[in-house]
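Hi R.,

Here are the chain sequences for the assembly we discussed:
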Amino acid sequence: MNGPISGDKTAAQLHRLAVDEVATDTVAILGGRHGKHDALDLMTGAAGYTDDISLPRMLHCKILRSPHAHARVLAVDTSRAEALDGVHAVLVGAELPIPYGVIPWTPDENALALHKVRYVGDPVAAVAAESEDLANEACRRIDVRYEVLPALIEPEDALARTDVKIHEDNKHGNVTKRVQLAFGDVEAALAGAELVIEGHYRFHGSTHAPIEPHCAVAVVDGKGLLTVWSATQVPHYLQRELAKVLELPMRQIRVIQPAVGGAFGGKSEPFALEFCAARLAQKTGRPVKCLYTREEVFLAHRGRHPFDMRYRTGFAADGRILAVDSRALLDGGAYSSFGLVTTYYSGQLLAAPYVFGSYRFDSTRVYTNKPACGPKRGHGSVQPRFALEVQLDKASRALGIDPIELRRRNFMGEHATTVNGFHVGSNGFLLCLDAVERASGWRDKWGKLRPGRGIGVAGSCYISGTNYCIYPTDLPQSAVQMALDRSGRVRVFAGTSDIGQGSTTMLATIAAHELGVELDDVRVVAADSDLCPVDLGAYSSRITLMAGNACLQAARTLGERIRGIVADVWGIAADQVVLARRRASEAGNPERWMPIQEAFLLAEGKLGLLGATGSYNTPKTGVHGDYRGGTIGASPAYSFTAHVAEVQVDEETGEVEVVQVWCAHDCGKAISPVLVEGQIEGSVYMGAAEAVMELHEVMGSGLRSDGRKRDPGPGRDGLLAASSLLDYRMPTSLDVPQLSALIVEAPDARGPYGAKEAGEGPLHSAIPAIANAVFDAVGVRVDHLPITPAKVLRALRERPDRC
Amino acid sequence: MPIAEPLDPARARRIAVVRLHVNGQAYAVAAPTHWTLLELLRYQLGLVGSKQGCDKGDCGACTVLLDGLPTLSCITLALSAEGRHVETVEGLGVGGEPHPLQRQFAERGAAQCGFCTPGMLMSSAHYLDELGRAASPVVRQQDIAAALGGNLCRCTGYTKIFEAVQAAADETCDRARALADGPGGAA
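And here is the predicted structure of the full complex:
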């Protein structure tokens, strides 16, 4: 399966076919089972992460943080800190007064508190000193006077309490965003439905917990150029926000993203450390490093929003979905972050792969006095997907339809438009269902396993990037510059952020495949704003489709030039020249060839220096609905996923063991299958962890919609329940289920060689598949995540046959 | 991080010289007495392969071998390494050639972001050492999982790490068997 390029065959296509012929007797590059391009550097300690940078005269920055969940800052006295020998500068909020926010419409954060702190851990002051120890000591000597305010910990309280405002200038109390959209007549459809399932679901908070903490290093040179190295996944947005807050033109800022030790959405916006390190470098004239502790990573958060969701879903007797009606309350934490988008995504990304006869959602995001929530892998759509897929499971039981069959009956098809107006191109969802059904032995297991053992299924859909940049622009979302050199190497310059997912490998694979060199002959220079064209960053699973297309364009331009020159020399047609395995050769005549380096030299001699650019911009017409918000969530191409999970539930302890998860994911075309499998396995692991283990919880005394009332004791409101990697229960090698990654390829005309995303989609339906498997095992539903032993036991005690 | 930090006389820190072997090389290294082995390796010897992920012994990214045993260097005082042998990820390969574990990890996609990888490799290396010393070595998935139980990975779901260690372990067993079965038995 080699890509779905539509239209007449071009020279490039013929070339590609010829390449495939040549490559059959060797290991293919495109679609071959290679490892990561930079793998050995990761193996030897040579990769170079931000904290590995050490510059002469470098100072160390530490940040003083609020001990209160909500308080007014009355005074900050830094004199005792400044008096400490070895302390070079102390920074307070008033020195960085311009607010920022990754979404340009909701700038509500300052690097350091101006007048208020809004969660335990909100930054208040920063110090640059000779060592971390000294900087910590200086922080202890900063005297802050606070006026403590009532803390709003639960989102229900934040909605109800009109007397307490977390952001005074916010228009609607503590509501940061509300989205209400309706498509079709939901009430009529529900009234006419054979079956209406009503459910109340709670999705808990979880966090990214990359193993590398956030880190930034800043230095200012003699010309006033500020260079910031940061463990970020959005160097371009960071450059823009630094320019705004520091009041510098963008040309005076260079952002470099070194190797990043995991991100998952947790490094997709600017953080206090980058502004503080930069301003302190300006103030001191020396390089400044700021490295977060693990606790600070938990406080920086931007993790999965807790959702409280009420769903009504109407079904016909044959299982077709007639109506979906959703109300959701999103717990946003102290700042907006990506929240405007999250609130839209909470409804907009749900309407595939099934046909919804009608659809309505009403989502409200509120501020609370907790670390801000943001985008975690599967931004805003993992929570509603859980609710919907459990609703479908309940319906399949009520209607007596196998849950896989029920999903098949609702399949929207290829080249179809969702109820909310998104145009979906390729769609391999049925292939995904087939694959997990077969691999898991579903037909021999569902409803047939011994008590305590169960199996469940769920499906989902995700975006391959968003059609619109987060700020208004008509400029390309991705661009690549490519140069061939006289040694036979290809150099690719791209703004892309490799955060471990392998975007550098993806670019190298495309360049090597198109230009007939080996992977090791490609050098990728990425994520350096001085050297690389702009790419928007590693978020919303956009890079393979967008930067991949830009890279393909540049590589094909150069390939055509090389083939043209070689063809002239040989007196044959250009489309008869094949570039593969470090050779230019004649198609069908392997005797006639020259080393690829010679071909590069020939072409440079005739044409001058060999360089080309490629750009990619998203389609803007005919791909989404024409209503306010209709563009948010629209993507050039959509990936599809199906999961089957098998669990073992201990009825004595309530413990759920996720035994195995099969995940089939339609990524369009696997450019590097080993890496795609890695994305699937990592996603499923993360989803399974959210289903039964992980909980990013903040202690509070508010009333919750599930009737639970908590009282952590005086002065404990707003404290993290788990702020270490021991207490935050991430699965170890001994906890992880067996993961089976199944690659499905339904090539999409908009992706490079048909490729779509693979980094986030495969997380979604892991969670409802596990929840549905728990029901199959013990006949009880746990609709409030995570599925802990206590909740399972409570549900078992209430199970009718136990009464 | 400079050792000669300005000193507040009231909080004067003591500096000590630690003598130890790192990756086969003998060193005498000055370090504040409160420094961890991880700080000594990263700041004084430039061995930045060992990572700081949590600074409290939870994540395993700082794992090194201390006298052959996997050790969390972020909660080990530098002074306690006096006279001992430390192996870090930088010492795994020999003569520029990657260790079989490094090769298998690279080929099989066992590292994504790579931040846990140095620690993961050192724990795996210890597992292979033990395996190589066993009278009749058997590679078992549950032993591999147990050997890596102190090393958190957030990217891979451990699947490809298990595969890579298994492949390297199989190589180790093959070598052991070849030695045992080869001409003369102990060739």
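The mean pLDDT of chain B is 92. The domain at 13-91 of chain B is CATH 3.10.20.30 (Ubiquitin-like (UB roll)).

Let me know if anything looks off.

Best,
T.
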